[in-house]
Amino acid sequence: MKSSLLLILFLSVQFTFGNDMLWSKTGHRTTGEVAQQHLSRKARKAIDKLLDGQSLALVSTFGDDIKADRKYKKFSAWHYVNFPADKKYGDVEPSEYGDLITGIEKCIEIVKDKNSSKADKVFYLKFLVHLVGDLHQPMHVGRIEDKGGNDIQVQWFNRGSNLHKVWDLNMIEDYGMSYSELTESLPRLTKTQKKFIQEGTIYDWVEESQDIANELYDSVEVGEKLFYRYSYVWWGTVEKQLQKGGLRLAKILNEIYE
Asked: Which residues cross the membrane (predicted)?
């Protein structure tokens, strides 16, 4: 009887939380795979040594994987940065708990520091891969009053959802590709196009994500029923953000190990 109850509990947990990880895994791993393909030889060698051969795609979900462990609760605020639509990142008082930008900066600082332990370098490198992916999911740079779109309720193919979840999960889940298939299907870019995408800093990139987020707020009405047309209109943006995230992550890592 005890084992049966445990099985029921396990299945219940999987049903409740399992789908919420699909975007996290597929989206983040796509960004990680794009970055892996654009590493310099020096960066690839150093990262391969640190991660014992694990790919950036494999470690890209690390930031979400550790959420269940309460000892990592202090990192929760690193996954997003919310501020008013008419403000820029530097215009508002940073959260005392940190945010997506300060998290990325801290990861870079520790990974670059020659005095950091290997354990710390591995931890913060994995987290860096994850956070750069989060930076390019526009609703992670949404507005504080609705928790980055989490409070904007909509219907996705007659299923309850919200604006944040549509972008975190629903569109990619329904597209039905593995991360390797999705990476392979991304637009082919010239060297000039890739270089243009990699220009700027994380401050430029957070403004870019905020601009997209502001468009997304105007893309739905509360309670709206979303179907194929929404994906048709916005899927190109999903692809671009995954690709940009990977290329820019590669830039950061190549600069760390130059």
From this structure: none
Place of tokens 């794009």: 34
Neighbours of 135 (CB within 10 A): 28
Residues 6+ apart with CB under 8 A from 214: 85
Q: Residue 10: CA atoms inside 13 Å, Cβ hemisphere, count?
A: 6
| Number of residues assigned to the chain | 258
pLDDT digits (tens, 9 = 90+) for 211-240: 999 999 999 999 999 999 999 999 999 999
Residue 6, pLDDT score: 38
Q: What is the pTM of this model?
A: 0.90
The whole-angstrom separation of Cα 58 and Cα 126 is 9
Give the sign of the dihedral formed by CA 61, CA 64, CA 69, CA 73: positive
Instruction: Give backbone dihedrals phi and psi of 162, rounded to 5 degrees, phi first.
Output: -150, 170
Tell me the C-alpha distance between 42 and 47, whole Å.
Answer: 9
Contacts of 160 (CB under 8 A, 6+ apart): 153
* Measured CA angle at 173 (ends 169, 178), to 5 deg: 120
Q: Which two tokens stand for residue 226?
A: 């979303």
CB atoms within 10 A of CB 109: 11
Domains and CATH numbers, the chain: 23-256 (1.10.575.10)
pLDDT at residue 129 is higher than 60: yes
What whole-number distance in Å separates Cα of residue 118 and Cα of residue 143?
A: 37
Instruction: Give the 3-state secondary structure of residue 156.
Output: strand
CA–CA dist 101, 203 (Å, integer): 8
